[in-house]
Hints:
The complex is a heterotrimer.
Chain A: H1 3-24, H2 28-48, H3 52-76
Chain B: H1 7-15, H2 17-35, H3 39-60, H4 80-95, H5 115-118, H6 124-155, H7 160-171, H8 181-195
Helix pairs in contact in B: 1-2, 2-3, 3-6
Chain C: H1 2-20, H2 32-35, H3 37-50, H4 55-63, H5 65-86, H6 91-94, H7 110-132, H8 141-158, H9 161-167, H10 170-193, H11 212-243
Helix pairs in contact in C: 4-5, 4-11, 5-10, 5-11, 7-8, 8-9, 8-11, 10-11
Amino acid sequence: MSGLELFNVFILVFLVVAAVIALRVKDLLIASVVFGIYSFLMCLLWAEMGAVDVAFTEAAVGAGVSAVFLIATVFNVKRDSSD
Amino acid sequence: MFGEDGGLLRELLVERFNYCIYVVLLLIGLYAMIAKNNLIKKLIGMSIFQTAIILFYVSLGVKEGASIPIYKPEHDPHGHHAEDHADHKPKDANASSSASADAHDDHHEVQALTDEQTRQYANPLPHVLMLTAIVVGVATLGVALAVVQRIYRAYGTIEEDEVMKAIMEESQGIPSTKGSPKSKKGASKKRKAKKA
Amino acid sequence: MRKLAVAVVVLTGGLLLYAATDFAAWGDPESPASDSDVSKHFIAETGVDTEVPNMVTAVLADYRGFDTMFETVVIFIAGIAILAILKLTGKDATKTPGKRKDEVDDAPDLIVTHTVRLLVPIIQLFAFYVLAHGHVSPGGGFQGGVIMGASFILVALAWDLPRAMDRLSVDRAILLAGVGILIYAGIGLLAMFLGGEFLDYAELSTIFPVSREMARYHAMLGVEIGVAFTVTTVMFAIYASLSSKGRLEGGL
């Protein structure tokens, strides 16, 4: 298995881990931040797959702006979640 | 297909690991959208679902050993390709008529890529479709978050079951506790205590 | 509910995994998606038709220009919808909003504001670079617009919303979002009035002293600027509404 494939598998596994953490953690602020991490991992994966424009957009939108939107909402509602 | 000893599993896990993970992420998102009680958790699930679909599309555009979908200098009309043609231009100009006085006439010499060269580039079409999907996705996530804030303003909670309960009480004519988030918060704490 | 969810998820997952075994091999250049005439045409002819080295930009703004225009309209509508959903009405509007218990009254942090003061011009310059270089490198109207919008959001985060709204008020933001779509549609209509079809940029060469290919090249930059206007302003308008519960004042 080449280095690039290993990198690919590494990111794919961490993607699933980040997704599960984002959904299981009870603090919504942590969930929003972990979702930002998830988006950034996704962006790395797409850059590795040759989709540079998509990766660029995801870095700006997913890891940046959408995490900010989620955090803004969490601060304006409540931080704890029942599940 | 199922008869081969571990053949299916091997094929899925080794050769199509990307497809495998896209399914897993899609299911995580789908489960969160159905089963999670908190509306923001549902929205995070929705976003995970969405990125899983995008991962699937981008995976389709991958070509083994291909470059990113931006022309290499030798294929670029503005790169070496064009310069080479500029060098050859005097000969061609002599051969052709005086109509080539037009400064942009040499564009006709720009050749389309051959099939062999086409294979050196990843498929740009899925990238384009997904690029706009991401930006539209964040706009729709914003709308959904606005609706969540509106629900919180009206019912004082973002837990699905409590919102449903409040709506049922309202429809049955029982005076609701609308506009008093504190009492609702207390109720949620009690419910948690019961669960524990 | 949870059992039902698990059942649905397992069923869907089984179906999708079963389908995944039938997909073309990983990275196969002969796979139906990559071997289709449309994809091959985009890769082979973009340089001839438009002289744009970045195929993604060319397909986005030219070949699929109609699609992108209405994606931009969707973003514009989302911005308006958020303002409408969170707008305070009735007795909510007259009620003076109480301070949240976690709201701080302190002046903005010195280190943060000084860093942001240094960073924002660089971020905005980078946004212009991304927008203008979308033809030859990754980037374009959507990315440049989001980065530009993020710079305004950063100002609002470091100080408070009024400080950012001095630079770009929400009313003006929505106006500029409309202007962005008008720029896009205007270029398309101009092409139509010059005898081509809607968004057929090559016709612009009849009024500008450039070749048909370069007319498409420059018109793509024009529509990307329109997209960037809409995305910048809508991103900021969404943040302003979401962070202040529609009050459009105060910090986060």
